[in-house]
Amino acid sequence: MRLGPLWHFLYREAFLLCVSMRKIIHIDMDAFYASVEQRDDPDLRGRPVVVGGPPDSRSVVCTASYEARKFGIRSAMACSKAYRLCPDAVFVFPRFDVYKEVSDQIRAIFVSYTDLVEPLSLDEAYLDVTSNKFQIPYAVTIARQIKARIKEETGLTASAGVASGKFLAKIASGMNKPDGLTVILPDQAIAFLEALPVGDFFGVGKVTEKKMKEHGIFTGADLKSRSLSELVSLFGKSGMHLYRLVRGIDEAPVIPFRERKSVGIEDTFSADVSDVVELMQRLRQLAEGLSFRLARHGKPGRTITVKVKYADFETHSKSETRSSIPVAADALHQMGRSLLEQLLEEGRPVRLLGLSVHGFISEDDPQLQLFD
């Protein structure tokens, strides 16, 4: 039996009503790696702590304690720059085995409430608690309980965001850090989205944000005032996504146990680049960012790939596979540089450069013993 247009409309509206009643929590640990270090070493408490390589290296900051952040130190920043900002900071090498162990403790708390847990990294996850194992009616109650259990069982604090969709829940969790709890109710969502800067919307990078501002789009309200056809004309498929998101339509499900297949980073240049020296400098910046993301991911990969998109949109890539790909920015840059040299065509302008690692080694893979 074929449904007519009216039935399609009613079915669609019923589905959106169900979505709008979802209860999503985003949990984000507070300065996770640095907080673990301060927990385990009392001498570090109250001091600016930087987790990363030594300050005289090209390593990047994995994370910084809140005491260090007061000096402007941020994740993915070069450790040398962090040292210049705060010479009194304590630089600590990351202990990913310890962070993974604590992360597993936290995840066990999550799954005691719901099986719909989508980890994003070692220190953050989405939870769909619309239906939960304790039949607790209010998501904010669950969020409070989870925060309290994390504190009791690990000695660490977490911030939580509660909303009817993943996007708003993630934004909310970052609003009152550290140890925060922010709720965005369904009847508050539209006003919140209208006031939000466009750079905070999912899918809006620096290049897209710049283009938006050139067209007079600075806030969600500006975005909402534009027609669907205009947004699609300006931003392609992202225009459709943004048109729906700014209207509170966020149907993205919480997907449990999703295995991430790759970790990468790309840079679309505001102006095409043909100078090889500048391209290598851009690759260095990508390597630093990728190093930080790989550290958060917590698993070693086997294959590194460099991608080049030329000014005419023709795209080429080159990969290298090893028993393991190092996490350090210097090594990533060196490997990426070798691949990029094989890809570049003299004088041909480049509009996008990308660097990624994939082929991650699972915990039960014998090769993982190489990294113990």
UniProtKB/TrEMBL annotation:
**Protein name, please?**
DNA polymerase IV
Q: What does this protein need as cofactor?
A: Mg(2+)
Q: Which family does it belong to?
A: Belongs to the DNA polymerase type-Y family.
Q: Where is this site: Substrate discrimination?
A: 33
The UniProt keywords, alphabetically, are: Cytoplasm, DNA damage, DNA repair, DNA replication, DNA-binding, DNA-directed DNA polymerase, Magnesium, Metal-binding, Mutator protein, Nucleotidyltransferase, Transferase
Q: How is the cofactor bound?
A: Binds 2 magnesium ions per subunit.
Source species, please? Leptonema illini DSM 21528
Its EC number(s): 2.7.7.7
- Where would you find the membrane-spanning parts of this chain? none
In this protein, which residues make up the domain named UmuC?
24-205
Q: Where in the cell is it found?
A: Cytoplasm
Traced from the root, the source organism's taxonomic lineage reads:
Bacteria, Pseudomonadati, Spirochaetota, Spirochaetia, Leptospirales
Highest taxon of source: Bacteria
Residues given in the record as Mg(2+) binding sites: 28, 123
GO CC annotations, alphabetized: cytosol
Q: Please state the protein's primary subcellular location.
A: cytoplasm
- Catalyses which reaction(s): DNA(n) + a 2'-deoxyribonucleoside 5'-triphosphate = DNA(n+1) + diphosphate
Keyword DNA damage among record annotations: yes
Molecular function GO labels: damaged DNA binding; DNA-directed DNA polymerase activity; magnesium ion binding
Name the coiled-coil region(s). none
Entry function: Poorly processive, error-prone DNA polymerase involved in untargeted mutagenesis. Copies undamaged DNA at stalled replication forks, which arise in vivo from mismatched or misaligned primer ends. These misaligned primers can be extended by PolIV. Exhibits no 3'-5' exonuclease (proofreading) activity. May be involved in translesional synthesis, in conjunction with the beta clamp from PolIII.
| Any single Pfam family the record assigns to this protein | IMS_HHH_1
